[in-house]
Specification:
By secondary structure, the protein is mainly alpha-helical. The protein is 81% helix and 0% strand. Helix 2 packs antiparallel against helix 3. The longest helix is centred in the middle third of the chain and has 23 residues. It is elongated and about 45 Å long. The protein starts with a helix and ends with a helix.
């Protein structure tokens, strides 16, 4: 997800997406540890998206 798109969302929606990304990352990490999925690329994308979301939330809190 692009940072421009993330900036257009409300804080509450960003919080929901951050939680959803965290849950998806947990599930992917669990499946990868069990050898059931090879979703490393998806995991990395989720991790970067979540970092972008958290960064923008922190920027807004500082203002």
């Amino acid at each position: 997800m692009k940072a421009e798109k993330i900036r257009g969302l409300e804080d509450s929606e960003l919080e929901k997406q951050s939680q959803a990304h965290a849950e998806q990352m947990f599930q992917l990490r669990f499946r990868m540890s069990m050898g059931q999925a090879d979703g490393l690329k998806k995991y990395r994308e989720l991790k970067k998206d979540r970092a972008r979301i958290l960064t923008i939330l922190r920027e807004r809190q500082g203002k």
